[in-house]
Predict the structure.
Amino acid sequence: MLLVLLPIGLMGYAYVGYPLLLRLIGSRRPPVVPRPDPAEWPRVSIVVPAYNEARAIQRTIESLLALDYPADRRQILVVSDASTDATDTVVRSYADRGVELLRLPERGGKTAAENAALAHLTGQIVVNTDATIRILPPSLKPLISVFQDPTVGVASGRDVSVGNIADEANDGESGYVGYEMNVRSLETRVGSIVGASGCFYAIRLEIHERLVPAALSRDFASALTAREQGLRAVSVDEAICLVPRTPSLRREYRRKIRTMARGLETLWFKRHLLNPVRYRSFAWMLWSHKLVRWLVFLTAPLAPLGLALLSLHSTVAFILLIAVGVGSALGMVALLAPEGTHLPRLVSTCGFILASHIAGFIAWTKALRGELNPIWEPTRRPF
């Protein structure tokens, strides 16, 4: 019975109990009063790491140039991680519009590219984004405006998953992204989020200047570093960026392995923040949002094993075991489907759940073996 109850209990707390507790605590906090625009907008540096993004980088640059923000208070820096296609050529064509290119001689990965950009930044606030993300024109000012609060060190945008569901087998990603953004909004109401969105977030330069090892996740580490400095990380619902869904579960599966393994290594690097005596509510949120949720994937294989043992004496357990088997079979159909195949929602949802659990378990094995992989293989997204 314990084999079944452990992963179910962890999942129930991480995905249901924790958000409910956040909502309860947040309801007792005073409402946040919106701040007016500052008299003078701070200078910002927008950093875009890119590896072989010739297909997308032009649209990305055009969208950044279209942001509603004073042009004389904005730096756009594209960091080419030793790209071998026409990425550099496209970026250089925008030099007369103030877009800067930093080319790295060797591939080092996303975090290494962001570290390399530090010496070239001119802004008080650094905005990190990706080459295939679309930031809506009105989104930058709300993200930067929150830094008028001196307790804020990091501000994270709100990801909105977009795509043509009729042409994708991965619409389960959309529901999960929406859920995650809602949890971050609840955490902000309580005090601080425990990890920023790598797609679109801003950070004070003095925090960003603290180097992050290349094998770790800077977006996750940014919120942790801010807390070490006595500052908060917040989610800004008005700062919207559009994140195209990956067109296949196999791509999402590979992305989840990479991001969760890096997340686990980052958490281990900053493990002192899990101390509830010193970091109180932040430690509780870090345990709940990250570690407990990730432990679901590590313990999930225990559930079917426990059901198999219980089914020898229980009809209910036998029925549940059959249901798990059917769900897993449907998930495999989704995982093996050719890219772009339209699948029924039930099949795609089972596929997303199965892919997440397998990827999570593999990420744990990589992290526990210390398999660091700093070299960046960006997720290719449609747009």
Remarks:
- The first strand starts at residue 44 and ends at 50.
- Strands lie at 44-50, 74-80, 99-103, 125-129, 134-135, 152-162, 200-204, 232-244.
- Residues 164-170 have pLDDT under 50 and may be disordered.
